[in-house]
Prior knowledge:
By secondary structure, this protein is an alpha+beta fold. The protein has helices spanning 10-23, 30-39, 80-94, 109-117, and strands at 3-7, 41-47, 50-60, 63-71, 99-105, 121-130, 135-143. It has a single domain (3-147), classed as 3-Layer(aba) Sandwich (Aminopeptidase). 30% of the residues are buried.
Amino acid sequence: MNIEIRKIDAESAKYAAELEKLCFAEPWSEKAIMEEAERGFFIAAFADEVFAGYAGMTQVLDERDICNVATVPEFRGKGVGRAIVSALLENAKATGASVVMLEVRASNAAAIALYEKMGFTLVGKRKNFYSFPKEDALLYNYYIEQNK
């Protein structure tokens, strides 16, 4: 399977908004995705030319915050998530970031395993951060200098 990462555009934002509905209790709209993409770095993954996932990252000074990372269910466990997160980290490194941050549902074992394999460090917890269902968020940081 060939995985290609592209900067998100209007067409892939439509797919991303549909994927949001499948993956998240409070999904972002197509409009919200495009608005955030104008301010941050948002990408779409295509596996053999088929939309397979997306993610975004915002910037404040030398910090980056990874927004929703979502993979189409039939592409999970096939390297799409890793390719997406790798592209975000490469962008962070190239643009002078010192740290990349994210939060993840405490029950999302697959995502947690991926982030830890990629060098993210657990740094804290936000009690009852998520709704529908109410759940803690685990906070992870990826320190650029430590992961060179």
